[in-house]
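FAQ: What does the model actually see?

It sees only this:
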Amino acid sequence: MKKIYLLMCFLGILLPYYNLINFLKGNNWSMSGFFDLLYANYAVSMISMDLAVAATSFLIFLIYKFKKMPLKIIRYLICLFLVGFSLALPLYLYDNHNEQ
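And it is asked to produce this:
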């Protein structure tokens, strides 16, 4: 199972950044218009809101776990804010998976 989580970590970096780089190439390496496109239609808005709620829930979970039992959450926070939920969650699952 850990191999699957590790694969998801790589995909969580590769897929979002592939699309970001393609957006930047097509937009003359400018971020202008990026946030407008997040809410371009209801389908994209739904996905954006879904990810925002999921990432916020994960952030709250990390803070709760940190207060309950101090663990090193800084790596997950860095992943969450620099790459996104697509890396932070699989990395957390990878680090905390117990083989039975």
